[in-house]
Structures are given as C-alpha cells and as structure tokens.
Amino acid sequence: MSSSNLNIPNMQEEVQRLSTNWRTLLDAMPEMVFLLRDNGSVEYMNRSAKACFGFPCGEKVAASLQNVGQICSSQLTNGTTTPETCVIETLIDTTPVEYSSVPFVGYTGEKLIMLVMRNITQRKKFERELLEFNTSIETILQQKIGELQASEEMRTKLMRQVNSLKSQLGHHHYADKMVGRSRKMRELREMIHQVSGSDATILITGESGTGKELVANLVKATSSREDKAFLKINCNAINDSLLEADLFGYEKGSFTGATARKIGKFEVVNGGTIFLDEIGDISPRMQVALLRVLQNGEIIRVGGTEPVQVDVRVIAATNVDLAQAVKEKKFRLDLYYRLNIINIDIPPLRERKEDIVELVSYFVNHYRDAFKKEIDFVPKSIINRLLEHDWPGNVRELENLIQRAVLMAKGKMITESDLLFDQDPRIEQKRNETSVIDEKLGTMPLKSMVADFEAIIIRRALDKYSGNVATAAGQLNIGKTALYDKMKQHNISAKRIKDKTQA
After folding, report:
1. Given this structure, which CATH class describes domain 19-119?
2. Is the peptide bond before 56 cis (omega within 30 degrees of 0)?
3. Which of 100, 313, 363, 447 is the most exposed place for a label (fewest CB within 10 A)?
4. What is the rounded distance in angstroms from the CA atom of residue 162 to the CA atom of residue 148?
C-alpha cells in the first residue's frame, strides 16, 4: 500500500476538523450565512439564519433564496457585479434583508454561492416612521438617535436624513406667522429665506389682504439686521408734506411750528430696517427724495441743504401695478428699478385654496379663545362653501368671515346661518347703478342724468384704484384739481373709499 493511501484517514480527519471549525465560526456570527448551489437550493444555513427563517426553511423562504441564488449566479458568471462591495436589499418571503454574495468552492469541488445577510426589519420600521411623522420629523429623528445604541455610521446616516427632510419640509422661523403649506407658500418661504440675508431693497407685491406686512416681518427677522431697529410707515395714511418731514426730519425754522431740529424716521432707524407700505401712492416729490436714499444712502432734512448719510435696509410694499404706473408716467422708472431689485410677489388666496382648511382652523382657534367660545367643529358643508368662494379680499376677507362666524355661533360648531359672506362691492355697485338709471329714465332731464352718471364713473374709478385720486385722474384723462372739484360737487370722499378698500 502506498504512502498516499496511508494518509487518507488523516486527510479525512483534517477535512472533518476544518469543516467543524468553519461551521462553528459561522454559527458564532450575528449575520445570517447561507451556502447556495448554483441552482439556488440551500446547502447550508448558520445558526442566525435558522433562528430567523427556521430549519428546514419554508417553501416561500426557499423560493426567495432560490431566486436570489440564481440572480447572484448569473451576475457572478457575467461579471456584472463586484461581490466584495455590492450590498443588495431584497425580501426573503416578507422579511426585508440586505446581503452580499461571494463565490465559494465546496470540499468536493462543487461551485457554491455564499450569502452574508442581515435582517433590516428594524431599520425599515424607522424609515416608515420617518415618512409617517414628517410633520415633526426633526424631533422624532432626534429621539430615535438617542434611543439607538447603534454605530457612529448609523448616527451619521440618520442625521443626513434629518437635514434632507428639513430641507424638504421647508424653512421655519419663530417670526413666520404666515399660515399655509401649499406649493406656492413653500416657494414664497423659500424665496424669503433666500434673499433676506442680503441688504438689497425688496419690493413686496400682491393684492390687498394677502399679508404683505407678514412677509416684511419675516424678511427682517431672518436678515442680518434682526436685532436692529424696525419701523413701519404707511405712505398712504400721511399727507405728502408731513410724510417727507416724518421720514427725513426737518431743520429749525423750515416751516411754521418748526421751533427746533427734528430727525426723521430714516435717521432714527439708522443701521436697521424700514418698511414703506403703499409705496405706489407717494407723490413725485417723495419719489425723488426716496430715490436719493436708495442711490446714495443719504437724506436731506426739510429746510436743510446738507446731506445726512444713513444705513437703512428698505422693504417696500404695494398693491399697485408699478410697471403700469411707470408706463402712465405716474411713477419714476429709475425709482422703480431701485425698488424692484428683488420682487416678492404674494399669491392671492384663490390661487392657493388648498391652504383654506388650515387658515380656517387657525382663525377658529384664535377667535374661539378671544371670544371665550367652545367651538370645536366646522362641518364639511361649510368648508365646501369656503372652497367655492373666489375671495376677492384674500386672507383678510376669510379672517373677517370666520371672526363673525365664531362670534355669532350659538353652539359648538359653525352653522350655515353663521356664515355671512361679504357682498362683492363690484357686483352690488353695478346692480345699484343700473337700477338708479332705470328709475330716473323719463323722470329727469338728460343733463341731470349725465351728472349722476359722471358721479358713478368717478366712484368706480376711485374704487378700482383704492381711492388714489392721482391714479384715477390719470385714467380718466382729467387734471387732479378738476377731479377733486367734481368729487366735491358729487360729495365723493376718496378717504372713505380708501378705508373701505383696506378694511
């Protein structure tokens, strides 16, 4: 007998010893280990794999493993994957796992595939929780990070998810009092946070009642001048001469009553921010003075001759179409360009009706507390009516409606009888004007009827331009003084129209 035959028992013992050693080693691993034949059938499962899927494994588990094995065999044969680095996620029956695969040669020379697999059920659970609770995602993720005794790699991954989801959810700031999470409102907030950090002049545009002052507040609060002075001026509420003295100050003796020098708002707020609302209504003289501030950073007090340097960030707002006003020679083109460096346009409520439900909830809660009411329900029929309305007065109109409804409600919910919509003044005015003409036709001379019709036209023009006499005069192709005379003749008050528009 040859020496090689004499060593066969020893070789078998060595093979058995090695087999026992690697099986013991694999059984000690927390990961699941499978040896699959090239047809996908299971040759071996370590202790972790058996604990997870049972032994022998069920038909569905076996079918899933067979499918994985065939895919791995095909990839390894075609060279389409790098087994040392490729980690793949899949389902074994209903259990989510991730695995990597390597070729393996058995003791008898057969070609096998080794799968090293990890059960990722818990991780998938966390991911589902992140999606389900995205309204408070940052808090939830921080709690989960604190609870996990995971590796530093897992902590880093979760923090990246926090930052990504925060970016998706949009910016939030304590000064953000705007209500709504529609796409248009997300874009508006993104725009504000994008531009507020600079000192560039901002022009806020939008219809009356859309919340231009809320936008100005958020711009200031998220700017580098957050801790500096902030003043708000309604340019439409102050007489032109008084507005100039208020903004730029005056020198002693510059006019009757000017017994001492007084500094204006621009000097008071030096280093901070000033919000000029209704900027489209300022006079040509004020436009020149404001242009000097924006161009050179200087003001001249009323009655003074020496310029005073100021460092003020200007935020302006208007519901007037300034581009059209420029075409009509009512607003300076150079001032328009200086103001319109950054334009933030606020969408009207009719273009973001998906925010109405959230706005209704906000206003109901606010006025329920204010009026000591116990309202806790708004019927779907009420919501449907609100969604159908066109909201010419925007958020201000909705707030007024809910305020009245909460005040008038007798029970714990708002009813149809509590919902009193404002009559659209344009429709009501047209109806009244038509009835007036019909009533007077044949009962009074043409001259008197023409005079009445003239009054109707003047009122309509003033309504259209929010009580701005200069704009209305331009549209009617009449001098401003002549228009004032006709308004006096017909007892028309621009102030009352302006107040009604802003209410």
Report:
1. alpha beta
2. yes
3. 447
4. 15
Pick the CATH number of 183-345 from 3.30.1490.100, 3.40.50.300, 3.20.20.220, 3.90.226.10: 3.40.50.300
Question: Is this model's pTM higher than 0.70 or not?
Answer: no
**Could you give the residue range(s) of every CATH 1.10.8.60 domain in the chain?**
349-418
Q: CA 8, CA 3: separation in Å to the nearest integer? A: 9
The strand pair at 111-119 and 342-345 is best described as unpaired
Burial class of residue 94 in the structure, from the number of CB atoms within 10 Å of its CB (0-12 exposed, 13-18 middle, 19+ buried): exposed
pLDDT tens digit at each of 503 positions of the chain: 444 454 655 656 665 666 677 778 888 888 899 888 877 788 888 988 898 988 888 888 888 888 888 887 777 666 655 545 578 888 888 889 988 888 877 666 677 888 889 999 888 888 887 777 665 656 665 666 666 555 666 666 666 666 555 544 545 667 788 999 899 999 999 999 889 888 999 999 999 999 999 999 999 999 999 999 999 999 888 877 788 889 999 998 888 888 899 999 999 999 999 999 999 989 898 999 999 999 999 999 998 888 999 999 999 999 999 999 999 899 999 999 999 999 999 999 999 999 999 999 999 999 999 999 988 889 999 999 999 999 999 999 999 999 999 999 888 899 888 888 865 444 455 555 556 566 666 677 877 778 777 888 888 888 888 888 888 888 888 888 888 888 888 888 887 777 665 65
Contact 191, 338 (CB under 8 A): no
CATH number of the domain located at residue range(s) 349-418 in this protein: 1.10.8.60
Tell me the residue type at 228: K
